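Hey, quick one: can you model this chain's 3D structure?
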Amino acid sequence: MKFDEIYSSFCLSVLILTLTSACDISENVIEPGVSFTKIYNNTSFTASYDPLDVATLSDSSYLVLAATDAWNAYLLKANIDGEFAWDLKLPEPYVNPLPQLFIQNDNVYFVCMDELQLGTYILQIAPSGDTPEVVYQNSDITYPLAAQMTAEGGWLIQGYNREARKTTLTKITNAFSEEWQQEYDILEDVEERIIKHLTRTGSRLPFFNGYVQGNGNAAYYYFNGFNNYTISLTFVNPTDGEPMGVMNGFRDLGFINAAKSLPNGNFALSKNSYGDNYLIPKSEINERAITSSSDLEANHFPEIDARAAVVIKTIKIQGQEIVFYATHSKSKRIMIYAYDAADGSLLGVEYLGQTSPYEIGNISATSDGGMIILGKTYVAGRFPRICLFKLTKEEVLSIIS
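Sure thing. Here's the predicted structure for all 401 residues.
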């Protein structure tokens, strides 16, 4: 580690005895603009938070998106030094926030679900902490599972049609009008698994989608979700969503659990096979072929928790494209692996968290060239709370040196 974690016994005593509302427990005594580790608490002994994404705003503050112990959307804002600014638990019917914040022209959005009609909302976040504004609503896109902004500034939303038992993929323009919707057969009933995923009463499933950049527009789109009998990575035509090719998983025993397209047309991948995790920092994929994730050559990482989420981000550092994998270990430490996107070589590894158990939420580059890492920790070994790690530019450079 590049900095030591020093628990404040005074703050911990206050936490256990009084659980002061929105208390900010710092594991480090910090100066502004340097590394920090922050834990954010609240008054409820029963509250639980599932951290989803963190974004750096134009004023260098941090915005966190999370889900509560039920499945309500929750927002938290911290200033540049990680100090608590405000938080907001959204009322019904805003539930099932998808694990990504989107920033466009200084506006911040996220996608969630209507608890009653199961339809889809796109919400724009108010900088003051007021209830976000609904900018798009579609009751025909039910059970939203993943979302991504397109190369043109529109939206790609993945859902589930419970009546037809099909995965849906809908392309929305930047003017919030539907361009096309495509459905993909699921040859068995998966609604119970999806509900357990959404309500966090069962295994979290690796739903995501994205695009490979063409000349100004997408060369093709892809989504990870149910297709045929399994969770598959499916590649589709950008003009109408028609299937082009697929990388099949193997029932519940093997599937891609993270993917990121690289500037050179390759992919950085992660797969789970029979409970073990494998990282593939550079993989050539034929988007028009039918393949299997079990055939991918990959490096086994036995230290990764079998149920841990895996996050892949690409960040350009001093002209070099770096692939960062973030996950957590079986011993509940957050791990960050850095790879050269050009050749797939391992550049370095960073471990975060010692005194408490930590699980990965997400990572993001910061405006000062550093990195912000969102996680979940268990205060007093019992209370699931949101935490932030801030690495400086120098600490990020030291990982890849």
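One thing worth noting: The two ends are 14 Å apart (CA to CA).
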